[in-house]
Fold this protein.
Amino acid sequence: MLCPHRITIITGHYGTGKTEFAVNLALHMAQRGDRVTLADLDIVNPYFRSRERRDLLTANGVSLISSSQACSDADVPSLPPQLHAIMDDRRITGILDIGGDKVGARVLARYRPRLIREDYHLLYVLNANRPEVRDVSSAITYLRDIESVTGLRCFGIVNNTHLCGETTPEDVRKGAALAMAVSEETGIPIVCHVAHEDHISALSDLREPLFPIQIRMKKPWEYPTITGRRSPK
């Protein structure tokens, strides 16, 4: 079963598709009957923000907390007090969507004493098409930096190699090869390969589990505008 732990922490380099994975994972967990809360904690480089899909998440039974509750276009560098509810209420299945660099990951450091007492796991999302982490050495360096800053150990690698709407099964396979090399070097297992649901059948030979997704997040310029402002749907 994908992500059997009570708290899942999702991190990795910006542009790896962490938020897309987090939103799809939250919907998946809610569908299987979990009481899910997704925490949007990307307060450094919030290019894609899960709070833009609040209506979709809420309609499917997922609670959302974020650093900017009142305005989806505001990026306030502070942590929501509601985050404590994930720690305190063990009936909640929590997903923490963390910023995509060491500075973003640092928000977790203050919660380390509580997290290590909980049933948590930290996942490292890897996109082999990101220049900063497309080779084994760079990917491992980035992973270890996140572990060092947070004081938490990574428990799994998620291959989410993509090129947005241009992604092909070959991209996922390229990411699978990188993820395998990183896994062999670090001893950290591959949790899953993320792929659009249309590509799942073409990737059925991969050894590790496949996690099918739908594209839930849009690029900023893909939203319709009202009087020159973005209007997320």
